[in-house]
Amino acid sequence: MSFNKVAVLGLGKVGHLAAELLTGAGFDVTGIDARPLQGAPFNTRVADLTDLEALRVALSGQEAVLSCLPYHLNIGVSTVAHGLGLHYFDLTEDVPTTKHIRELAKTSRGLMAPQCGLAPGFIGIVGAHLAEQFETIRSIKLRVGALPQNPTGLLGYAFNWSPEGVVNEYLNDCEVIEEGVLKTVSAMEWTETIYIDGMKLEAFTTSGGLGTMCETYADRIENLDYKTMRYPGHVNLMNFFFHELLMRENRAEAGRILTNAKPPVDEDVVYVHAAAEGRTEGGMRRKEFVRAYYPIEIGGKQRTAIAWTTSASVVAVIEMVRDGKLPQSGFLKQEEIPLKPYLATRTGAYYETGHRSRRG
After folding, report:
1. Fold held by 122-301
2. CB 228, CB 206: distance < 8 Å
């Protein structure tokens, strides 16, 4: 069932760019936000996105919806999309939200595809691609870090992503598979050191990055985990902030303090490090996918690395659904998306052309 009309909810940096990329890919796009927007290269309208009836009216006549809203609004958006029979896409890393969407998918007329961002999302597509090259899989280790290129201060960070999302990831428990056993572990633990292009980084557990992969790879793998990458020293300070100063008890205030102290920057970088180990006919092998993504120009404007990698990830999936290369109904797991056709889409190709070595 091909479709063309897509509504994009939330026109911040990521949502606006996603709407532009969808327009470039030939979709009829309507951008919807709580505030008026002038000069966009796609149709726009204003609606109260917290009011489900107003949202239902706004989505009337659409064939698909992409939510680029804070995760806590996506339960309502997905419910409205399900009721209208629309294809649904979002960028959430929130586990309870995804569980709600999975229930909706049991009776959906369109495809329900949450978790289409970087992590979960692109990193899971890459991890599954690496894993399928083995007869038996020993481990999948997935790491992503969205960072300032030129960090300052002890924290070495800038909030180029939603503070609500970051706080959520740092405090919620994390699913892993360890020695073949599904476990839940605390966030900001299991610290390790990683080097990418000579840059020393630390990685530690954060929630939601695996999406549905623990379920998919249960009984098939010994070890599976996701970690966020930061500059060295970050995780100790964040543990102090959230647990010793008890800021975990007020997540909204924690997000406000951190964003005020470390506002967004234009010069950012997204590091991606995926590795899988397993057995082939030649014995045990390790496959890796390691990239550093920097700001690039799209549509005559410079786009931050986190904005274009996140936007491109979900738009590539929407292209594949339109073109009949993915299911048209039910629930879509990110690890079910084949990497090569994904990178062959108009928008997915940015992942091939948008990375470079720090030295290159």
Report:
1. Dihydrodipicolinate Reductase; domain 2 (3.30.360)
2. yes
